[in-house]
Amino acid sequence: MATKLPVDEVFRNQVERVSDFAFNETVAGVFDDMVSRSVPFYAEIQRMLAELGAAFATKGSNIYDLGCSTGTTLALLRASLPVDAHLCGIDYSAEMLDKCRAKLAEIKLDGEIELRQGDLDEGVDIENASVVLMVLTLMFVRPLNREKLMRRIHAGMNENACLLLVEKVLGDGSLFNRLFIERYYAFKRKMGYSELEIAQKREALENVLIPYRLQENRNLLLGAGFREVEVFFKWYNFAGFVAVK
Description:
Number of domains: 1
Radius of gyration: 18 Å
CATH architecture: 3-Layer(aba) Sandwich
CATH topology: Rossmann fold
Number of helices: 8
CATH class: Alpha Beta
Structural class: alpha/beta
Low-confidence stretches: none
Helix content: 40-55%
Order of helices and strands: HHEHEHEEHEHHEHEE
Shape: globular
Largest sheet: 8 strands, mixed
């Protein structure tokens, strides 16, 4: 029987002042429920990431998950790998890494996946990489640091390696941006979130999560040196990209 996830009630009660969103102990404790109810087709996105990652993984290479959170993507990819490769998860939040270690230990993968604490705003060390994943991560990196970070990631990747990027995105204009956000909030209501929860989380994320338009993300990848970029997933204001060096 599957273990029931702790329910996300982080923004359930009204507060006088909403603090900036942080991946602290409270969020880490309910993150798996939060992300599964906040990201449309989350399970399918994860399945696709594991498939695509397995297709590009090469023997003896490194595979990095930048912003690995609680390790869902790492665990699924590890189970899908057709070759022997070294997996490494990097996250800024010590609390998220604690949850990740516990999850990997529960499924007997704690000795097979390296975990590191690191701040992507300050850069990252990538080497001999066949696959790099950034799943709902880049949008939390300060915009001024994104180009430098992407070039550094590209430099540490092998030829024909891939970057898998999943992001919340803006619509190209105000009409579609408004329409897509309305559909997204309707999805969240369907997943059980109240209007208060939706409003307070939106306020908490306002200065923390800064999305780009789809084309801006594509241009960022091409500008960093990736030779091919394709969208492998799109749902209103969420998109998945695969970029090949």
